[in-house]
Write a structure and sequence with these properties.
alpha+beta, five-stranded antiparallel sheet, Uridine Diphospho-n-acetylenolpyruvylglucosamine Reductase, domain 2, binds flavin-adenine dinucleotide
Length: 295
Amino acid sequence: MKVEFLEPQSLQDAVAMAKAKGVGARFVAGGTDLVIQMRKTGVLPEAIINLQRLRALGEIKHDADGFSLGALVTHRQIESEDRFLGGLQALRESACVIGGHQVRNVATLGGNLCNASPAADMVPILLCFNADVTLVGSSGSRNIPLAAFIEGPRKTQRAHDEVMTDIRFPKPAGKFASAFLKGGRRRAMEISIVAMAGVVSMSAGGTMTDVRLAMGAAGPKAIRLAQAEKFLEGKVPSKAVLEEAGKLAAAAASPIDDVRASASFRRHLVGVYARRVIELGWNRISEAGNDRSAA
Ligand SMILES: Cc1cc2nc3c(=O)[nH]c(=O)nc-3n(C[C@H](O)[C@H](O)[C@H](O)COP(=O)(O)OP(=O)(O)OC[C@H]3O[C@@H](n4cnc5c(N)ncnc54)[C@H](O)[C@@H]3O)c2cc1C
């Protein structure tokens, strides 16, 4: 079967091409998910619409309200972004463990989110930062919270002619830190067995406040761990407190058995990583001091 390869020069052209070609057309950014799926299933789209010429979608911007990352921003850009040091460092930590160097040079943030794998490594930290995504299609533009955009494994709210243009999040206020941990059988080129991200702030009284925890690869989609977050609020992270938070996190997991790990090992790892991520975030706030941790 012949696949048509289209190269729109503008966002409007990309949307118009997708609308004209219908559901048989697919957008491509880095191609590191799409091409693998095409090879694996043998199912080819009727048309591939390349987004790479839409250069404006490849920028990282920030203003007083927060950050905006274009959907074509690569994982390499994120892992080497100086603005993501200090409190935002879990963004770099999430990006730098995706695939190997060659993958990160071309694979994009938008592709990671639109592909909606339960193990997509950028999702947990962006859930912690309460990110929204912007979609532009033939019916106009809309913003959706990332938590609602991803509905399940490989399932999103995106209509076939909608391009994800950017991902925005407000910077948490005050003294905060973030951390990300990825569990796998080896350190590189590994799909996560469990991924855990956390953001923690310190109150004037020296307790945890605005605690945010999200896990990936331990259920049909990455989710925030609301019960563990609520339990940690207002507390100091003692051993007993962290252990209880780990139990609450593990109870929220709904992992599966697969070739990479058993469900019971994944659940165990969720508990361990929830504890460690909070401890790591807390240590970062305590060590860095107010100005640097909140940078
Ligand atoms: C060797 C290897 C290792 C990997 N390791 C990891 C890993 O450790 N962690 C991890 O999370 N992922 C990993 N991946 C998966 C992949 O690299 C990432 O998910 C990547 O971010 C996908 O981005 P992409 O630009 O290549 O997406 P593409 O393959 O171009 O697209 C993926 C999907 O999203 C759609 N899409 C892409 N961009 C847009 C857009 N702007 N608007 C609308 N739809 C869009 C496409 O139509 C397609 O359905 C790995 C892949 C490979 C090949």
